[in-house]
Amino acid sequence: MFWELLRAHFIHTSLIAGVVVSAIAGLIGPIVVARRMGFAVHGIAELGLTGAAGGLLIGLDATTGALIGSVAVGAALGLLGLEGRERDSTTGVVLAAGLGLGVLFLSLYQGYATAGFGLLFGSVTTVSDAQLRVLLLVAGVVAAVLAVIWRPLWFASVDPDAAVARGVPTRVLAVIFAVLMGAVVAETIQVTGVLLILTLVITPAAAAQLMTARPGATIALSVAIAVTVTTGGILSSIAKPWPPTFFISTYSFLIYAATRLHRAAKAR
After folding, report:
1. Measured distance CA(209)–CA(62) in Å, rounded
2. Predicted TM-score of the model (pTM)
3. Which of 85-99, 141-155, 175-189 has the lowest mean pLDDT?
4. At residue 58, what are phi and psi to the nearest 5 degrees?
């Protein structure tokens, strides 16, 4: 049964989509951790549901609506909450308003909103070829932009005061990064869903930072962990008919816990 399913086209599509999404989530994760934007990631993911509901209301599919909504929210947070001390409060304000708007969209929508609700827990095994092409395009754009702004963005993330003193355009970088984060979040909820978004964006990066202090190595390890747990989660769901998201979140947590225990034992 396992080998028969492994030859199925939808499994191949799921594996490719999982690798693409987890790689870009692992790439951006260390910056999210460095900038302490975990709550913002969760807020953008929840408001992706508002975008999905709005997309359904105007005739788009839920995935496209979630992408547009997440990017728009990311841009709003970048513009409104540029200072670290304002970020959490701004995220809370935007989250509350956006969820209220999502309730309105769902109440106005006359069809079945199961596709939008499916984003709560992820549905990587249902990714179509068309959706995969969108995932590849978005991931390519995000990776290209990150490659261009990587050095000043990392500098501004780990030492914002020194970056300002050196003339780094921190405000512009904050807005650009928030938009990129919105795009990555919209992609990641295809795999993990809204409720477990931090499984790929935060946990691999946090584990990688426990393993090394070097930025380049942290990025590489974060991507490797994210890709490994996602691929392993999808394959495990073939062998055992449980949701891929369960396996992905479990493997991700176990790697983080093992890394933390190893570091504590080494310190002793």
Report:
1. 34
2. 0.86
3. 85-99
4. -100, 5
Q: Which residues contact 81 (CB under 8 A, 6 or more apart)?
A: 40, 87, 89, 90, 91
CA 120 to chain centre: 13
Query: Is 113 in contact with 53 (CB distance < 8 Å)?
Result: yes
> What percent of the chain shows pLDDT beyond 70?
91
pLDDT band at 84 (very low <50, low <70, confident <90, very high): low
Residue (of 202, 164, 161, 186) closest to 69 by Cα position: 186
Contact call for residues 178 and 64 (beta carbons, < 8 A) = no
C-alpha 2/C-alpha 12 separation (Å) is: 13
Mean pLDDT of 38-49: 83
Taking CA atoms, 254 is separated from 31, 141, 195, in Å, by 22, 31, 18
In this structure, what token pair is assigned to residue 2?
């396992």
Please report the pLDDT score of residue 193 as a whole number: 77
Phi, psi of 160 (to 5 degrees): -60, -35
Locate 184 and state its tokens.
């990555």
Give dist(CA 86, CA 179) in Å, integer: 18
**CB–CB of 194/128 below 8 Å?**
no
**DSSP structure class, residue 125:** G
Are 175 and 90 in contact by the 8 Å Cβ rule? The answer is no
132: pLDDT confidence band, cut at 50, 70 and 90? confident
